[in-house]
From TrEMBL:
UniProt keyword ATP-binding, yes or no: yes
Domain ABC transporter: 9-231
PANTHER family: ABC TRANSPORTER ABCH.1 (PTHR24220:SF86), IMPORT ATP-BINDING PROTEIN (PTHR24220)
Record key words, sorted: ATP-binding, Nucleotide-binding, Transport
GO MF annotation terms: ATP binding; ATP hydrolysis activity; transmembrane transporter activity
Protein name (Swiss-Prot/TrEMBL): ABC transporter ATP-binding protein
GO cellular component: membrane protein complex; plasma membrane
């Protein structure tokens, strides 16, 4: 990719309006933010504040009503559905609250999946998936299936799957929402390591002690950013 001068995320005056007339909802009311490479950002806000709407736009699952969004320098509003799917596969690693691993399929095969979609050959897939599993501390569990792993381990497999394509952005939506304290700590330790190794992470959470682990905290109220604070 060469020398990169642009931010990973560049959100410019983004508005999102659902419905029209009497049922119109302004979910985002002019959100602007940039995230530089290597930053680790937590987004907090109460229910209905627009977090999922913003996540969907950042993740190229939806487009703004007005305003502009550049991901890794690419104006995604100009892309068609097929191109958006490619951007999601190549540039973004998703982590969801519900893990979303494929049942009766080894951890290794789960992690290899995004590489298979990207057309990477089998031997190279295996090599990269093993590296990603080692990164989350699960090298020894590569042939375990999801139901043979704890919740925290499953989420770490999901994190390995998210980072195996070397995405510009790791996007996590309540990744610790289904986990106990110990597993939450294990997963957050992985995010700490990813952050230390230079990954760009955006994490949505309700939990203040999870948000505290990030380098930067953004708070949404009623579709607007009301706080954007550097933590470390
Ligand atoms: P959060 O994730 O912070 O709970 P959301 O982004 O889901 O907030 O929702 C923000 C606002 O937009 C809420 O008022 C919600 O009811 C509304 N909203 C979200 N998605 C839709 C949709 N698909 N159609 C209509 N309204 C929606
Ligand atoms: Mg939500």
């Amino acid at each position: 990719m060469g020398e990169v001068m642009h931010p990973v995320l560049d959100v410019q005056r983004v508005r999102k309006i659902y419905g029209q007339g009497e049922t119109e909802v302004q979910a985002l009311r002019g959100v602007s933010l940039t995230v530089e490479r290597g930053d680790y950002v937590a987004i907090m806000g109460s229910s209905g504040s627009g977090k999922s709407t913003l996540m969907n736009i950042l993740g190229c699952l939806d487009i703004p009503t007005t305003g502009k969004y550049l991901l890794d320098g690419v104006d995604v509003s100009r892309l068609n559905d097929r191109q958006l799917a490619l951007v999601r596969n190549r540039r973004i690693g998703f982590v969801f609250q519900a893990f979303n691993l494929i049942a009766r399929t080894s951890a290794l095969a789960n992690v290899e999946l995004p590489l298979a979609y990207a057309g990477v050959k089998a031997a190279e897939r295996r090599r990269r998936a093993n590296l990603a599993l080692a990164m989350v501390g699960l090298a020894e569990r590569a042939d375990h299936e999801p139901n043979q792993l704890s919740g925290g381990q499953q989420q770490r497999v999901a994190v390995a799957r998210a980072l195996v394509t070397a995405p510009a952005l790791v996007l996590a939506d309540e990744p610790t929402g289904n986990l106990d304290t110990q597993s939450t700590n294990d997963v957050l330790a992985v995010f700490d390591r990813l952050s230390a190794s230079g990954r760009t992470i955006v994490l949505i959470t309700h939990e203040p002690d999870v948000a505290e682990r990030a380098r930067r905290l953004i708070r949404l109220v009623d579709g607007r950013i009301v706080q954007d604070e550097r933590l470390k």
